[in-house]
Amino acid sequence: MSAVVRTVGGDVPADRLGVVDAHDHLFIRSPLLPGQELDDAEDAAARLAAFRELGGGTVVQWTPYGMGRRADLLAALSRRSGVRIVAATGLHQAVHYSPELLGSVRDSLAELFVREITEGVAGAGGVRAGLIKVAGGFHGLDAHARLTMRAAAEAHHRTGAAIAVHLELGTGALDVLDLLCGETGVAPDRVILGHLNRSPDSAVHRQAAAEGAYLGFDGPSRANHATDWRMPEAMRALADAGFGDRLLLGGDTVTPDTPGMPYLLRRVRPRLALELGEELVERVLVGNPAGAFALRT
Hints:
Layout: E1 4-7, E2 10-13, E3 19-24, H1 41-53, E4 56-61, H2 71-81, E5 84-86, E6 88-90, H3 99-105, H4 109-118, E7 131-135, H5 143-159, E8 162-166, H6 173-183, E9 191-194, H7 202-211, E10 214-218, H8 231-240, E11 247-250, H9 260-276, H10 278-292
Parallel strand pairs: 3-4, 4-5, 6-7, 7-8, 8-9, 9-10, 10-11
Antiparallel strand pairs: 1-2
Helix pairs in contact: 1-2, 1-9, 4-5, 8-9, 9-10
Keywords: Hydrolase, Metal-binding
Family: Belongs to the metallo-dependent hydrolases superfamily. Phosphotriesterase family.
Protein name: Phosphotriesterase
C-alpha cells in the first residue's frame, strides 16, 4: 500500500501533494501577539487562492490545539481553493495558553493527539489532523516541552503521524532529537525541525541532518530575526554535504503583516533556484514533503 498524507479532505497519496508549503498558518491566535491574530476566513481564502495561482498544491498548517486553528473551516477552504491542507494537533509552549486550559488537558495529551488524528477534531465536522506540533525552548527543553514531546511520541507510535517541532529562535535541535529519538524511540525521519534559518549554525544543521531529521527553513523571517539572507547559503551547504533530501521550505505566516505563502513561491522560490538550482528546489518543495508528512507506523 502506498504512503498517504492525512489532509482535511481525507487521506491522499503522498506523491500527489504537488508543491508544498511545509510550514504555515491560515489561522492562529496567541496572548503573546495581542491584536495580531490570523482569524479572517476571507483573508485565508485569498492567500490560498494566490498560492494556488502560483502553482501551490498543499499547505501544512502547524497551528496546534487551543490556538485558534479554525479546523471547522479548513475543509471548505481546501475545496474552495483547490489547495490541500494538512491540519495539526499538538501543543505549543506553555506561554501561549491559559493555566486553566493547560490544566484541563495536561493529564491526557497523548489521548487528545491520537483522537484528533484518528477520529477528528471536536466540532470540525470530521476533519482529522495529520501532524503533531510541539515546541522546544531557547537552547533547551523545559518541563512543559518534555511533557508534550513525550505525549507526541506516544501519539506518533500509535498513529504514524510525523512530529513537527517549533525551535525557539532556531535553537535546541539536538536536545529535541535526544528526547524524541534517544529517549522515546521516534525514528529521526519522523521529526521535522522548524525555524532552523533563525539560527544559522551549520554544525548543528549537519548533525541534525546526519541523524536523519527533516530540516525546516521557513519564513521569510520577521524583521527581528534578520536571517533571510543566510538561508540560501545554509541550504546550499547542507545539499553539498549530501543532505538535500532532508530539506523543507515554508512560509510561516504568523501575523497579518507576514508576506506568507504567496511570497514563498513568488520571491523565495526563484531566489533559492538561483543559489540551489531548479532541480534541488523542486525536490525541497515536492519530493521531500511527500516523505516527511506521510503517515508511517
